[in-house]
């Protein structure tokens, strides 16, 4: 069995990025350190694959997530209710172990006079998630990006995730979700708004 690294032998497909020799060497060192032989057949191309995979996991470094909020609609037609996107799946990597963080996010805002296409909220999330992260900072970065760029009445971000560094090593506790939240504006200051948004998200 072999696994797909997302690149196919089709001239129209994206070119595989070159993985410099020193990066491959680093991965060989890690394989050796883990107890295996980087020269055995199954591992020969692994350093290249891992190098490319990490470029993808950390694609967020190539972008400023705020760019997704630059195209706003200012005519909200008197809409003054909460906009909520929930159960957005994402993957990130923890900066302490470079282990996967897998989870879902709920992102809500109460617009003042700017709204964005709903998929843009997910793009902002992925822009910050595709970096080395801690869940607390990821949650805060998504919230402030929306807060600063849409200038809404309120922003609420709740992230629930499992950490590979907890499920696969250390205390080895699968099935434990870590929940973080960041509330701004009316969702922070006004108890009724906070209750409303959290219950819409399913945390009421
Ligand atoms: Zn970790």
TrEMBL record:
Stretches assigned to the GTP cyclohydrolase I domain: 24-201
Positions with a binding annotation for Zn(2+): 94, 97, 165
Pfam families: GTP_cyclohydroI (PF01227)
GO CC terms in record: cytoplasm
Region (Disordered): 1-21
Enzyme class: hydrolase
Record family assignment: Belongs to the GTP cyclohydrolase I family.
Organism: Altererythrobacter xiamenensis
Official protein name in the record: GTP cyclohydrolase 1
């Amino acid at each position: 069995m072999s696994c797909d690294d997302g690149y196919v032998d089709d001239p129209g497909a994206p070119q595989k990025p070159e993985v410099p020799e020193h990066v491959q060497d680093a991965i060989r060192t890690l394989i050796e350190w883990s107890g295996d032989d980087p020269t055995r057949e199954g591992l020969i191309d692994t350093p290249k694959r891992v190098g490319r995979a990490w470029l993808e996991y950390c694609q967020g470094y190539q972008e400023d997530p705020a760019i997704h909020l630059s195209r706003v609609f200012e005519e909200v037609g008197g809409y003054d209710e909460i906009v909520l996107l929930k159960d957005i799946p994402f993957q990130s990597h923890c900066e302490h172990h470079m282990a996967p963080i897998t989870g879902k996010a709920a992102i809500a805002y109460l617009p003042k006079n700017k709204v964005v296409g709903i998929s843009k909220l997910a793009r902002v999330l992925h822009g910050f998630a595709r970096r080395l992260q801690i869940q607390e900072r990821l949650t805060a970065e998504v919230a402030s990006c929306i807060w600063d760029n849409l200038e809404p009445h309120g922003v609420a971000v709740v992230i629930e995730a499992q950490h590979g560094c907890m499920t696969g090593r250390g205390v080895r506790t699968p099935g434990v979700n870590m929940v973080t939240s960041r509330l701004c504006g009316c969702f922070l200051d006004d108890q009724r708004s906070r209750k409303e948004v959290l219950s819409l998200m399913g945390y009421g």
